[in-house]
Amino acid sequence: MPTESAMNGGIGTESYAKNSRYQGGAVETAKEIITEGINKNLDIEKLSSTSVDTFRIADFGCSTGPNTFIAIQTIVEAVRKKFETELSDSRVPEFQVFFNDRISNDFNTLFASLPPERKYYAAGVPGSFYERQFPKDSLHFAHSSCTLNWLSVMPQEILDNSSPAWNQGKITYSGEKKEVLKAYALQYAKDLDSFFKARAQELVCGGLMAILVPTVPNPNSDLSSITFPSYDLLGTCLIELAERGRFDAAKVDSFNLPLYYTYPNELKAIIEKNQDFSIERIEVLNVRSKHQTDPDPKAFSLAKRAVFEGLLQEHFGNEFMDELFDLYAEKIKETAVPSNPKETSMITFVLVKRVLRMT
Amino acid sequence: MPTESAMNGGIGTESYAKNSRYQGGAVETAKEIITEGINKNLDIEKLSSTSVDTFRIADFGCSTGPNTFIAIQTIVEAVRKKFETELSDSRVPEFQVFFNDRISNDFNTLFASLPPERKYYAAGVPGSFYERQFPKDSLHFAHSSCTLNWLSVMPQEILDNSSPAWNQGKITYSGEKKEVLKAYALQYAKDLDSFFKARAQELVCGGLMAILVPTVPNPNSDLSSITFPSYDLLGTCLIELAERGRFDAAKVDSFNLPLYYTYPNELKAIIEKNQDFSIERIEVLNVRSKHQTDPDPKAFSLAKRAVFEGLLQEHFGNEFMDELFDLYAEKIKETAVPSNPKETSMITFVLVKRVLRMT
Predict the structure, then answer these.
(1) Separation of first and last alpha carbons in chain B
(2) Which residues of chain A lie closer than 8 angstroms to B93, CB-CB?
(3) Hey, are the CB atoms on B122 and A125 less than 8 Å from each other?
(4) Which domain of life, per UniProt (chains A, B) (predicted)?
(5) Would you state the pLDDT for residue B291?
(6) Do A111 and B103 touch (CB under 8 A)?
(7) Within 13 A of A308's CA, how many CA atoms are on the CB side?
(8) Which residue, among B303, B292, B301, B348, has the nearest Cα to B324 in the 3D structure?
(9) What counts of helices (H) and strands (E) characterise chain A?
(10) How far is it, in rounded angstroms, from Cα B260 to Cα B216?
(11) For B135-176, how does the pLDDT look when each residue is reduced to its tens digit (9 = 90+)?
């Protein structure tokens, strides 16, 4: 079954809008590098020869804001300035911005919080970014931040108790089983390939795409050194709830986070396989040092709740969510996970250009 | 203050989605005439000379469906067939459809009910259709059904107890006061002018717009013969609630429905004032005879609730809505308003083409 649940909607205490400072940090950190990328790599002359009256931008996996608005603002300003400088004020196109996320995303909240002073026409586009969402050659700039670590579906073997990749008692691939990691990695490569194939159709030649991908450092020989203490701890909480009789232990076995953290070398190899894009820049952003995850256990628990609650509700029902995330906050406090240096997640920035297809 | 509330969201008993059969009747009735209009008036050769890779359609005031999906399906099919017939299968463009309504519209419900088998890319566009919502020259076909009877704001003099146009004790202009009717009509002309000015910018030259406008028959000399028994009855219910002590009587005086029903001659004159459009067809649709308003009092009350509840809640608070619409259903039953021949609302269809601007 495809993973369909989106980030927590609304603007309440448990909403993504109120609990996405870490993701916001990524966007803030990327501002400069995106502006630089547009200055250096957007070929205005070439684009304008095909008469761009409207410059179309899409943010894939936008959720509910405000991060998406900050990212879009950066892009619109950089492109506008480039048009003004290289051509003239009168040649600046109008901007149309498409906010994309899953159908279950809270678009009502997104629309209600659109910046009133924005200088672009806004639209929401519901649907999975692993598929086509836009007409051919209709976008000039694509953006996606902190979303390309989500799998489109869970690989079946993970959930199959007769498979060597059965991930019993765990909710992610952190651990010793190589088969589990492999199943996740294969699905990820397939998904990312779908993402790039779809975007290659949608972007005009010369169009740019900036992606901020949650990754882990390039591994040495020992892939099993990749661990996610914070996810393991969430798994432990689920097991404890099962022990308290809230649901069957088998429920935990059949639940896995559809998340995979690729590493820069693997990411680069997947993109290079797609001949429609050239990599203009790839680098690891130093997000963590500038935008520390909130060390307060309750805030840390809330941030994870905003992201995973929908997914967990679908599987376990919604009556255990308060208990689960209270327990999680407690365990976070006991183990001091947020400041644990073993948590290896980082963000890799990639800027690609849609090249002319050789057919 | 601009009127901001939208139709009732969701898919429950009181939702617009479940209570818009009359509006659906208009869309059904217009199917044939829209298809005909596209066949006769869409200049494919001319459009395709400007290389239409994507054919862009917008529905202004779409609400939550299903009516909007039926209308869009009709338009997409007619355009597709025309391309196939006049050019070739390979020249059929991709379709992108924009669903527009106020920011407070329930886009989440709209997106969740998008037809899965649709052959177009969908997007939602939040914002008032009395203002620009799209980039210049970006639309090929615009549509709007049963929405162009809403005013963008209430004219101030209606609410001013020192003005001859003060509409005390009434919630619409049905009645004897000419000043009230005049204030409504002036605001309407202004709003419709804004609508056409905005669409003229957004539509490409040769682009078409089909509007289904709730109207009344062309009046004779006696404008005050225009009456709306069903709205008057709703006003009576509000006064009765004030008498029951639910709210102050002044609350009713300061409430007016921001609805104006123009008549074919007036509509034509307003459109003709705008030099950017040529009227290709204008005619009254025989909706009522084919799609009678539900004569069941409860259903009639629900249909009005789906449309006006948001507006009434804003003004009177939400605690009286059940009482109000129960009372309304009772009064409908007593007076047999739904089958009252004095209710003169009908629907006028207009097809316009965006002509080359003479500058």
Answers:
(1) 35
(2) 135
(3) yes
(4) Eukaryota
(5) 45
(6) yes
(7) 25
(8) B301
(9) 11, 7
(10) 10
(11) 999 999 999 999 999 999 999 998 888 888 888 888 888 767
The answer to whether the CB atoms of A124 and B126 lie below 8 A apart is yes
User: Tens digits of per-residue pLDDT, B91-111?
Assistant: 899 999 999 999 999 999 999
Terminal-to-terminal C-alpha distance of chain A: 35
Asked whether the beta carbons of B99 and B110 are under 8 A apart, the reply is: yes
Task: Estimate the crossing angle of helix A229-243 against helix A297-316, to 10 degrees.
Answer: 60
Please name which of B321, B280, B285, B314 lies closest in space to residue B23, comparing C-alpha atoms. Answer: B285
Q: Residue A214 in contact with residue A345, Cβ under 8 Å?
A: yes
Contact (Cβ atoms closer than 8 angstroms) between residue A336 and residue A191: no
Sequence length of chain B is: 359
**In the structure encoding, which two tokens stand for residue A63, read together?**
């959720």
Six-digit token pair at B279? 């009227």
Alpha-carbon span A138 to B165, nearest angstrom: 51
Confidence of residue A288 (pLDDT cuts 50, 70, 90): low
* Structural domains present in chain A: 21-354 (3.40.50.150)
Mean pLDDT of B297-321: 89
* Mean per-residue pLDDT, B324-344: 79
Residue-wise pLDDT for B230-264, tens only, equals 888 999 999 999 999 999 988 898 899 999 999 99
Instruction: Identify from B90, B106, B111 which residue to disrupt to test chain A contact, counting A C-beta atoms within 10 A and taking the largest count.
Output: B111
Residue B147: both structure tokens together: 């929405």
> Counting one residue from A and one from B, how many pairs have CB atoms under 8 Å apart?
80
Look-up of token digits 């910018």: B201
Q: Is the pLDDT of residue B1 over 60?
A: no
